[in-house]
Amino acid sequence: MGSFGIPDEIIASRKEQYPVGARVELICMKDPYVHLAPGEQGTVTGVDDIGTIHVKWDCGSGLGVAYGEDECRSLCPDFSKRVRDGILAVRDTGKTNMFDTNAVQVIASGMEFHETVIFIEEHKKEYCTFIMTGHV
Fold this sequence. Notes:
The chain is built from five helices and four strands; from the N terminus they run αββββαααα. The protein is of the alpha+beta class. The model has no long low-confidence stretch (mean pLDDT 88).
């Protein structure tokens, strides 16, 4: 059991689902004093050990999305599934140097891994880290 009685599995899941740099959209915040509206978008800056997703909202706010109280949804693809599969599928074709990101994106698009194309465009550093180390 993690901090504040939140199971470690939930914390780990939130950290995987909302990696640093992921784009999110606010669904709701229960705090009546919050001036963020559903639909606001922002960039994840981290997930803490009590499950709060810290976000730099495009409107300038830095309020976190509290576990069990507030809700957001990821606008970024889930790297651990679809994006990873796309990268590995392109690699397995042997058609390009994996550091030629433009060629990788063209091949991924042709294979209908559109999430991979977007991920590479928005997260080149993380993509290159994955290519070099196998993890982000």
